[in-house]
Amino acid sequence: MSELKVESPLTFRTTLPELEGYFRPKSLDEALSLLSELGERAKIYAGGTDLLIDMRLRNIGNKVVVDIKEINELRGIREEGDSIFIGATTTIHEIKTSSLIASRLPLLKQVVERFADQFIRMRATVGGNLCNASPAADTPLALLIYGSEVEIASVAGRKRVPIKDFFKGVKRTILAPGELVTGVRVPVPQGRQRVKYLRFDRSSEDLMIVGIAGAVFEGREPGDFEFSLSYGAVAPTPLLFKGLQDAYKRGGADEVLKIVKEKVSPISDVRASKEYRMHLVEVGTRLIIKELLGGV
Q1: Is the model's pTM score more than 0.90?
Q2: Which regions span the lipid bilayer (predicted)?
Q3: Which of 61, 109, 233, 239 has the fewest Cβ atoms within 10 Å of its own Cβ atom?
């Protein structure tokens, strides 16, 4: 009697599954028309750093791939009024090396500097990092604090959605079949910014164990400021805590942590236990408060 072989659900294959089709539209209108026609059968390919892994693991069935890399309208970083627009297929490397990002959005600059390694940064895109909707994604932590909006297009038209409303759960967003993220619009704070990003991980190539971003945006009057924190890998979606300055003035780091701990709900997995993640939340929050506000 031959031995029964049971294939692990994590079996990684070097070959991709057979596809129903592959399209490489040259314009946004062409891409939207394809997505409207294909519906749920379509899988969007930009950098492929998540999609290709899922395909090799056979987490995705025989789908139709729509490659959007050659659509110029979806790429680039530009200043538009009081905000900066980052196209969906702009790579993390392009954000990291942008002088505009470094000078106007320093928290995002810090985040992308800790994003994986150089090889991944050259391929991964900001749109893919958002649409993959991993609780451990890096860029949402900065984009949440800046109050960004995700720009979405379909054959029915275009819309902007606050990024805080974009994520619906693990690997789930508000995107409907036929819709495509075209970019993210990031408001630029008018006053001085003090920012800090902490990423706890096992290695730069691995997903974060916990990520914490903090920012102090100073107002016009002395002593007037807004203090916000965001957290990754401690809940089904990235968490934003905006306007924590009153809690800090009332009771320092202890009062801030009281608010944070009511919302975080980490899990235990191969990277860390939930108890260790909670420990990192406390330690990291206190470190950021000490650096940005001088308190402990």
Answers
A1: yes
A2: none
A3: 61
